[in-house]
Amino acid sequence: MPNEVTGAPDGRRLYVYYRVALADLAACGQAVRTFQAELQRAHPDLVCELLQRPQSEDVAGQRTLMETYARPSGVDEAVQAHIAHAAATALALLVASTRHVEVFEPCAW
Q1: pLDDT tens digit sequence for 11-48
Q2: What's the pTM?
Q3: Mapped to the 3 state alphabet, what secondary structure does the chain carry?
Q4: Which end of the chain is more exposed for a tag (fewer CB within 10 A), N or C?
């Protein structure tokens, strides 16, 4: 159920970040949007985003991208595994670093 104050979904959320070579940025963005759309077809309540660090923070010809995932009931282990598999398949040749996965939950206080 969405938070009445913020409108954001309650529960467990995923934040995944990694670097991509500038030359691969457009292809990577398209690949992420494609597999996120497929994930949303499989999990209609899944909210996905693709974000990037500002251009001014590019380092060594690379940019940091971040994918975010949320569901009203939280992202459970099964959905997290589906996300990881979809990303591994789609991005194997496009990312220049490890995909770092962070899990956050709303504060209970």
Answers
A1: 899 999 999 999 999 999 999 999 999 999 999 999 99
A2: 0.88
A3: CECCCCCCECCCEEEEEEEEEHHHHHHHHHHHHHHHHHHHHHCCCCEEEEEECCHHHCECCEEEEEEEEECCCCCCHHHHHHHHHHHHHHHCCCCCCCCEEEEECCCCC
A4: C
7 burial level (CB within 10 Å; 0-12, 13-18, 19+): exposed
Both tokens of residue 36? 């996120």
pLDDT tens digit sequence for 49-66:
999 999 999 999 999 999
| Greatest Cα-to-Cα distance within the chain, rounded to the nearest angstrom | 44
